[in-house]
Amino acid sequence: MTRFSKSRGIALIVSLLLLVAITLMAVSAIRNTTMQEKMSGNLIDREVAKQVAEATLTFASTQLPFVNGAAWYTAALPVPAPGVQDAWNNPLIWANAGTRTVTINGVNHTGEFIVENLGMWASRQDPTCKPRENPLCERQTYRITARNAPLNGRSSVMLQVVWRI
Known about the structure:
Blueprint: H1 2-61, E1 73-74, E2 98-104, E3 107-122, E4 138-148, E5 158-164
Parallel strand pairs: 1-3
Antiparallel strand pairs: 2-3, 3-4, 4-5
């Protein structure tokens, strides 16, 4: 009888160790699944933000040529200088940004855009364009910056395009 009671004690210890190992594997799988769910949610959020920014950029480009006096249009040519941030990097500029409502999967999202006048540039499509010889080959150029309206804890995407008309 003595041998039989010792065997039952070892079986109890082995079964408890197996139970602990299985529990640790289950907890690890749950944590892994939760992390993957958060990652896929962030990916969807970023893709929606990108679609809003792209739709807003497309809308802003259809407003060509831009009208002076619109709050979202900067007519003055930007002058790069050390210590001066670009207009699109200035939070105060975004206070007057143009807006566009974009509906994705039945949900309304707000896109914002600003437009900067970059002046007259030579056309890259025409390699024979030499502004000194023919100033008419230069074309009006703009920088359009669009982004989805930033929300706390959500993805934000900003896109820029240089547009010539």
